[in-house]
Amino acid sequence: MDNKLRKLLTIIPDTDRVITGDSIEEVYKSDVLGRLKGTVWAVVRTVSTNEVSGVLSFAFENDIPVTPRGAGTNLVGSTVPLSGGIVLDLTAMNKILELDKETFTATVEPGVVLQDFQEYVEKEGFFYPPDPGEKTATIGGNISTNAGGMRAVKYGVTRDYVMGLEIVLADGRVLTVGSKNIKDSSGLSLKNLIIGSEGTLAVITKCILKVIPKPQSSVSVLVPFNSLDKGIESVQHIINQNANPTAIEFVERKVIKLGEEFLQLSFPYPQAKAYLILTFDGYEEEIERNIRRIEETVRKHGALEFLRLTDKETAANVWRIRGALVKAVEAVSEQEPVDIVVPINKTAEFVEFVNKLSEKTNMQMISFGHAGDGNVHLCVLRGNRSESQWEDERKENMDKIYTKAYQLGGLTSGEHGIGISKKRYYLKETDKTNIDVMNAIKNSLDSKHILNDHKVYML
Q1: pLDDT tops 80 at residue 1
Q2: 10, 31, 64, 125: which has the highest count of C-beta atoms within 10 A?
């Protein structure tokens, strides 16, 4: 046993929580897609802030890279240990520490799984709105990528529900940023620096989250169209009605079919070419008024039908299929998952561009996403292309897709983050001064660059 490993084992008393050599599972070397691979010296499963602090202090002193990791559902390589070193597995820090009903806050550890947390607070009469498609992600991972999801059109994204954080800096120092207070004009917002930083600035060890009263009722609606363009064009009219939908999702029939086959479930109105899926929540009378207004609007703008999903099982299956689309596509072909965001009035133009590019290049590109906030998810499929063909054609087409998005005023990522796989596009478009400022912040908080180095904004 070398001296470094001996020292590490003095910090983590349970030797089964320090994994080295051939005992390290392959999953720790990649993200959920498994295509980008790194190397690992040791996997350390921490159970407390003190342990995280000790591991980071040790790593900093010995110039050992550290890659923080939650459930590993990341799609852009943020959890890939590019520089070797330690993978810091935070999934065992999974306690809900407090639900403070008087301040409408909950304090949790970063390894708490999103769906478990949502179920817990709902049983207590509360609601945690951030709702990304992957419900098995951890709260710490959601915060690290500022996850959005389907309810963002009404409720906002993860950042809007993070009140405070306990974090550990690269050198092991522990600090609290933010609090349970709603207002805060006290100095720089260090909390907001950490949110969305993809583990490059600090490791999150506790999270203070805002919760709200649980809506009395929720109703989902499926609106089929004979073309995706018609569906997306109707979104602006829906928003103009001020009916406050919780979610407005768009999806093509061809990708729904993959979801049906993947989950062995059926989707209503299979003769459509595309769909909008909407949810309304609140008081029943309010929901009813809003739904009637939206039904009248979409029927005027090309809807084939307006289906209230009153059967709970049918509604649940519709959302299960929507939530599993990336996995469904991945089951039939290697793909490049994309989550570009454009101004909502440019969504239709962007999707039309992608569809024409798909036809021109004979590379299948499947569109779905969050129509209410302009977050377009694309699955760019490899099909039967050779490795070299896929590499060349994918890069060429992705360059065109990102260039078009930027021309429309869009951004590289809406909710997946940048990680490794989008870094090339992000650095190409982002002003150098912005990148310089980000790297200056990185240097200030992590002078040795041990935390998730060479990712996101780092040159």
Answers
A1: no
A2: 31
